[in-house]
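Progress against Task 2.4 (sequence-to-structure conversion) is shown through the following example record, which the project officer requested during the mid-term review.
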Amino acid sequence: MSEILPPAQLLEVPMTAEFPSVPSRDALEELRRRRRSPHLKTQVGKYMKDPVIPLKRQEPFAIFFRQVATPQHELLRFLRTVKDLPLTPLVLEYHGDKFVSTGNPYKRSLGKLPVYQFTGSDGRDMVKYRTVVDFNAYTGKSFSDVRCKNGEKFVEFHHRLLASVTKMKVEKLCYDATPWFTRHGDLAHLYYEELLAFFVRDAILFEHFEPTEAERVFVKAIMLPAFRNIEARFGYPPLVVELVPKGEETRAFWDSYPKKIERYL
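Structure tokens generated for the chain above:
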């Protein structure tokens, strides 16, 4: 097994590098194979003394990671994708993260909801916006401290939408890992390696990577080094599935909501 490379070496990755991912069925077969290895189980267990999700059950997880679970089309696609797989679907949340109005389109979309209308003949997705929060009042606050304009707690508002659209029990579908993130430093470069260790044999990560400059910088500086260190440590890479079809990553559709949410606003 190769030795763990120091971060300085791992950061020398071309900006065009894509985050390694595999098709869901291939990832599932590989997960099954790894879970049959007692040696790998022991290895991962020794390293991952504080797993991001308590391992109280035998079934492996299908994980989708967002600060707040909300019924945008990317999450709905995740649920459809894993519906027939022998995996327990779970949305990993981080309510202690900071709410911002600029620089992070996903976080902004939680406060200014893009509701999908149609896709034009030019291929552009048309949305209309519904603003539910006072950005000036809550920018920089933890998601758990934000309230909507109607007084409803921000996280509870999004969970209510999610339950209304999916008819699923949010308390079973979602897991707020804020205490774990806090214990591990709250900053991505401090916790990402240990987070990715969870996807060696206990879960598959389903993710939507947008090929934007900010996303590419994050992948290069944080995710790829952590990914490669985990692969070097265990001899196996974390299992990651690209959730969105290739070529559709930049569509506004994925961060938008179905029209039906308007009846619940």
